[in-house]
Amino acid sequence: MNINRIDLNLFAVFDAIYTAGNLTKAADVLCITQPAVSNSLARLRDLLNDPLFVRTGHTMSPTPVAQNLIGPARQALELLRTSVLQSREFNPAVAEKTFQFACRDLIEASMLPRLIASIESQAPAITISNCDINRNNALNAMASGQLDFYADSEMLTDPYLAKQKIAEDHLVVVGRRNHPAFQQPMTLENFLACGHIKVTQQPEQPCEVDIELARLGHQRRIAMQSHHYLTIPSVLVKTDLLACLPSHLAKHYDLAISALPFTMQPQHYYVYWHVSANEDPAHRWVRQQLADIAQAFLAPQVARHAA
What we know:
Elements: H1 8-20, H2 23-30, H3 34-48, E1 53-56, E2 59-62, H4 64-88, E3 97-103, H5 105-110, H6 112-122, E4 126-131, H7 135-143, E5 149-152, E6 161-169, E7 171-175, H8 188-193, E8 195-199, H9 208-215, E9 221-226, H10 232-236, E10 242-246, H11 247-250, E11 256-259, E12 267-274, H12 281-306
Parallel strand pairs: 3-4, 3-5, 8-9, 8-10
Antiparallel strand pairs: 1-2, 5-12, 6-12, 7-10, 7-11
Helix pairs in contact: 1-2, 1-3, 1-4, 2-3, 6-12
């Protein structure tokens, strides 16, 4: 028997005939015509190489093959019905599910703790996992279901991706406490006189700070490159290097902080997902948690701009 030929609808018809004991009654239960029931039964007989039912007076009596099959068939149909219902409904209090994120250390340290705290109180059996994935592979991973969310400060444009803004921030200059460059208001001259730590995922490419400096006709001296924001403060406190970090990260460390001596556009952070997950109720629920958390980041920005 070729398993690929199996039509699950045939087993719904099989169950209806077994229960009703009559093709006409089975058709009424299924809301289809009696010839359609007869056709489905013929297909299933051919598939299983067994008559399944034999006529006894006005009743269709099941054969031994049908009697052995009815239990597993009903279990499979019930499992399918339950799965369909669960796919349309989501109860966070009892849901057991893992959501796979891919985001850099900065977002992992700032957003995920708040998300986990929100979820833990409402959905104790939901798990959040974060992995490292190349942004070029993110779309395929989300399309295949291996990845639920991808978060980044860089803008991704693809018709199969949906996005939601989760935060906005601006860069500041940071260095160790009592650093001489911070004794007076930070000037471009003092900024360029120091060595710098560059944070980038693509070492061969200039970052936003270097692009803006090049536009102004300047270049800073890069003494160190790192993939991770969270390693930078521990280097700064032991050296005279400077770094440009997001303000909401810098304020958590015992560092000297100054505004940039040149103008930079704010940084925007987005979470992305594949459009195929738009209507999934569990996915929608997590997105709502993210939206609620984002208000804590975005509301102060709105207030600041309004002022």
